[in-house]
Amino acid sequence: MMEHDPLGDILNSAPPAITAAESASLLHRHWGLTGQLDGLASERDLNWRVTTPEGLFVLKLANAAEDPEITRFQNLALQHIAQRDPGLPVPRVVPTQAGAGDVLLPTGSVVRLLTWLEGRPMHLAPRGPGLRRSMGATAARLTRALEGFSHPAADHVLQWDIKQASRLRLLLPAIAEPALRDLCARWLDLFDNRLAPLLQGLPWQVVHADLNPHNVLTDSVDHARIAGVLDFGDMVFTPRICDLAVAASYLVDQDNALESLDEIASAWADVLPLLPAERDVLPGLTAIRMVTTIALASHRAQLYPGNAPYILRNLPSARAGLLALPQPDEAL
Q1: Is 305 exposed, middle or buried (0-12, 13-18, 19+ CB in 10 A)?
Q2: CB burial string 184-204: b at 16+ within 10 A, e below
Q3: 106 — phi, psi (to 5°)?
Q4: Distance CA 210, CA 254 (A)
Q5: Contact indicator for 243, 211 with CB cutoff of 8 Å
Q6: pLDDT score of 4
C-alpha cells in the first residue's frame, strides 16, 4: 500500500478466501439450504449465486476489513426501502434459521443471504433516451425511499463517495495516460475550489452511491425498463445529488453530453424535485464521479492485476464521458 493511501484497509484488502465447499457448509448450517454455488464478480467481497430447490439467492461474504455494522447498515436500509416503496426492485434479506440477518465468522467476515433478482445487466443494454429516463426515475425513487433512514455506520469514509474526491490526488500517478491524468487533476482543482464549498448547503441523506451499469438490471424484453438495483455496499450519508451524479456518469451520451445529462435529471426531478443549487452542481459532480472511477480503477488494477478486467470494467466509459463533458473551466 502506498504511504497515506486514501483507500484505507477496505479497498486495499483482498476478498475473503473461502472456498465454495466452505460457503455451502455455511449456507446449510445457518439457512438450512443446499444447492449449487457459482461465483459472482465483486470488487472487495465474495459473492455466490445459489441455486436451490427453494429458488435463487445470493450468498454474500463481506470483506473482513469492513466493520460488521456496515453490513447491518445495508440490511436495515433494504428493509427500510421495502417498507417505504415495496415496488422498488431491490433484494430482500433472508433471515437465518435463528432469525438473524447475518452471521459473523471468526475471520471477521459477515455472511448474509439475499434474494436473487432476475434481469439483464444494464451494461449490456442499448443506451438511449428511454433508458436514461428510466434510470433517472428509478434512482429518484430509491433516494426518496431512503429519506429519513439513519444509522451510525452511514458516516463511514469510503473513497467512492463523491464528497471525498479531494483524497484522489494521491492516486493520480496510477493513471497511465498523461493527458487524462492532467484532466483529472484539473477537475479535482475545480472540486476543491468551487464544488466542495457548495455541498454543505445541499440536502443530505443516506444514498445508494453506486448506481453503475453492473449494479443495475434491465428487463430482458424491454431493455429501457429498470428491473433491479443491486449492491448496496457503498451506501453513505452524503449530498443526495451525488446519487444522481453517480447514475448519470455512466449514461452520458458522448455525442450529446449535456442534453443526455438533462434527460436523466428531468426524469429524476419528476419524482424528486431538484433544487436550483443541485442542478447547478450536477454536471461538475458527474465529472467528479468519472474522475473517481478512473483514479480508483487505475490504482486498484495495479494492486490486483489478476482482478484487473473486473476493476477496469467502467474505465473506458468514464474516460469517454469525461472527454465529452465541458472542460473544468466551463463547468460552473
Answers
A1: exposed
A2: bbebbebbeeebbebbeebee
A3: -60, -25
A4: 21
A5: yes
A6: 45
pLDDT at 1: 38
Retrieve residue 93's grid coordinates.
434479506
**In the chain, which residues have pLDDT < 50?**
1-4
Contacts of 319 (CB under 8 A, 6+ apart): 177, 180, 290, 294
Q: What pLDDT is recorded for position 226?
A: 98
Q: What is the pLDDT of residue 15?
A: 83
Helix-, strand-, coil-residue percentages of the chain, each rounded to 5? 50, 15, 35
Closest CA to 197 of 78, 296, 89, 332: 332
pLDDT for 14 equals 78
Give the cell for residue 166: 479531494
What values do phi and psi take at 211, rounded to 5?
Answer: -85, 65
27's grid cell: 449456507
pLDDT tens-place string over residues 200-229: 999 999 999 999 999 999 999 999 999 999
pLDDT of residue 76: 97
DSSP helix/strand/coil, 210: coil
Contact 237, 306 (CB under 8 A): no
**Residue 3 confidence (pLDDT):** 43
Question: How many secondary structure helices (H) and strands (E) does the chain include?
Answer: 11, 11
Which string of b and e fits 32-69 if b means at least 16 CB within 10 Å? Answer: ebebebeeeebbbbbbbebeeeeeebbbbbbbbebebe
Length of the chain: 332
Are 118 and 220 a contacting pair, CB within 8 Å? Answer: yes
Q: Domains in the chain, ordered, with CATH?
A: 8-116 (3.30.200.20), 121-330 (3.90.1200.10)
